[in-house]
Amino acid sequence: MHHAPATARSWLFAPGDSEKKMTKAMEGTADIVLIDLEDAVAPESKAAARPMVHDFIKANPEQRHRLWVRINPFDGPYTLADLAAIMPAHPGGIMLPKVYGRQDVEKLDHCLSALEVANGIEEGSTPVIVLITETAEAMFHTGDYKGAPRVVALTWGAEDLADSIGAQSNKDESGAYTFTYELARSMTVLGAATAGVTAIETISADFRDLEALRQRATRVRRDGFKGMMAIHPAQVDVINEAFTPSEQEISEAQEIVDIFAANPGVGAIGFKGAMLDRPYLSRAQQLLRQVGKL
């Protein structure tokens, strides 16, 4: 089954052991709610969280497409128990964290296929977003996800990567990511482009500084990211706005598509005092596709 790349802008984490926080996240404006069984849930609480997550998704069938689950990674003992508990509720999608490479995605695909069939869900229908930079090893495989089953988006993380490297910090004195972590961001957008899927920016931990969030979201959107993860409901509207093309951008993209359509076979066209070549057309088409106008 072929999945289209993800179009969601905001991906809001909610701890899987808190019905209150899951409900609040679902009632907000996040495009995707990432119910978390990994970092947000302590090891001793995981067994209790799984049936809570199952029941929450089951109780909200009309919201199911928005309710995704971040399971635990394959390098620990929890993954299969997570999947066996939540798949009967038919979650909207799965986030796979802390991969070492494409083989983890393929393993997840096999697990999901078996559980889909066992639960009367169409085989192959559950989409996946992958956290591709949380281990040093995975950084060497960021371009390996082309044609990977179920994958609709790639995203990155800096905390586990620092841990994997044994670094004291992933930030410099000014609070900006140091080179290795900016590299992780670059490899994510390149890997997503290679795979033909959506690049999603990592979280901004300081959820009170919404202006810094807006600036960062705007900057990474220019780099090719189409959305961003959030850890607090207050961040969602800022992210949604930052990753929504403006009316001006949409109308300019439409003009560019129209001018190329009116001049078939032309390589470059003069437009508003500049020469436009084919990459401009491609970018305009991508933008219109994103807003459902192409």
Descriptive tags:
two-stranded antiparallel sheet, eight-stranded parallel beta barrel, lyase, alpha/beta, magnesium, CoA ester lyase, 14% strand
The dominant shape is: globular
Average pLDDT, all residues: 96
Sketch the topology as an H/E string, one letter per element: EHEHEHEHEHEHHEHEHHEEH
Radius of gyration: 20 Å
- The helical percent reads 40-55%
Quickly count the helices: 11
Major sheet: 8 strands, parallel, barrel
Extended strand count: 10
The structure class reads: alpha/beta
Low-confidence stretches: none
> What fraction of the residues are assigned to beta strands by DSSP?
5-15%
Distance between the termini: 23 Å
The largest beta-sheet arranges its strands as 1-2-3-4-5-6-7-8
Description:
There is one protein chain. The chain is of the alpha/beta class. The mean pLDDT is 96. The longest helix has 17 residues. Strands 1-2-3-4-5-6-7-8 form an eight-stranded parallel β-barrel, surrounded by four helices. Helices cover 43% and strands 14% of the residues. Helix 10 crosses helix 11. The chain is built from eleven helices and ten strands. The chain is globular. The two termini are 23 Å apart. 40% of the residues are buried. This is CoA ester lyase.
